Amino acid sequence: MSTKQITMVGLGAALMAVFAQISIPIPNVPLTFQLFGVVLLGVMLPRKLSTLALTVYVLIGAVGAPVFAGFSGGLQALIGPTGGYLYSFIASAFIVGTFAKKNNMIYTTIGAYLGLAVSYIVGTIQLKYVLDMSWLAAISSGTGGGVFLIKDIVFTGIAIIVGKQIHQILLKNGLLNNKITE
């Protein structure tokens, strides 16, 4: 890995820590901008770098750094009610990056919303089992009664547009190159 790539991974992880702190506390699952960050990174960075950035973010939080929502961290965050959302970010970034590398807005959009769906599914499953909820209660809580879902659908569209623009800027300024497609 080059120094530029390592820097992009570190900056991506740091950006996720910032998006996690932009939150509105709601019972069980806080409303944050983390999924916006996942899609943004998946679109603006090559798949390998965005996936590594999210892996670093989750690992840094797992060892106790306060990078998760509400300046929380530690292994308990990953095994707690919202942990499924956190570690699903890695798979989501991989999915978004896989589709975005085709450099086609339709594929990128499909990948972004598939990544979003993976986070919701994995997060809801863990929420259900950790809090011993019914499926209906877990889905309702995990989507904030639909508020989170609406916010994430809208912000995913914004992240796609912004991520594409940032990707072009990074290419133009030599911070990424066209040879890095993974």
Describe this protein's structure.
71% of the residues lie in helices and 2% in strands. It is mainly α and 182 residues long. The protein has one domain: Orthogonal Bundle (Arp2/3 complex 21 kDa subunit ARPC3), CATH 1.10.1760. The longest helix has 26 residues, at 105-130. It is globular.
The ordered H/E elements are HEEHHHHHHH
Overall 3D form = globular
Distance N to C terminus: 12 Å
- What is the number of E strands? 2
CATH class: Mainly Alpha
- The overall pLDDT average reads 91
Topology:
Layout: H1 3-21, E1 23-24, E2 31-32, H2 34-44, H3 47-62, H4 75-79, H5 83-100, H6 105-130, H7 135-142, H8 147-172
Antiparallel strand pairs: 1-2
List its traits.
182 residues; mainly alpha; Arp2/3 complex 21 kDa subunit ARPC3; two-stranded antiparallel sheet; 8 helices; 2 strands; 2% strand; globular
Put the structure in a nutshell.
The relative contact order is 0.16. The longest helix has 26 residues, at 105-130.
